[in-house]
Design goal:
Blueprint lengths: L17 E2 L5 E19 L14 E6 L13 H4 L1 E5 L13 E19 L5 E2 L1 E5 L22 E7 L15
Antiparallel strand pairs: 1-6, 2-5, 2-7, 3-4, 3-5, 5-8
Length: 175
Amino acid sequence: IHKASFANDGLYGPGASWVSNSPYSWIKLDLGKTTRINTVSFGRDRLGQLNDRDPGQFVIAVALSDDIYANGNSSDDDREYKQVYSSKQNGFNGFISGAETVTAQFNSIDARFVKITFANAGAAVDEVEVSMVKSSSTFNPTRAPRDGKPTGTSTHVPTSTPLPTNSPTPIPTNT
């Protein structure tokens, strides 16, 4: 059950998660077209049912092209992908609790493919979300800009994710 395709299927929870087979396993997402992004979020089990299989340290890299985009193939990734985020460099300890969400923010960049490499074997991810989030007052760079150089990155790790609620659907009375 824990297929790579489950990491971005729109579903939350342990039954819809990806689990890595070995240390430094990775998942790739194809955004379908070149898109401007600056945020990647994921959780272990955002429904709060399980509290195991932490991701450990992770690295996010992006690419505009991937000549062999396939499960298990990373033969040209060192030339195609550019690292945009390292959790270790941003102070993440590698542990999340229950329904918490890991949110990694970095300088905005154009990307078609996103690759996340997880340090821990058995790391579980219930859903990866990639987006462009406007800067807010909560985004604090790790260093000040110097001479027009890009600012540092920061992460808001972890945060509580609200649990989904059951929304009653009216049942027609006259059918």
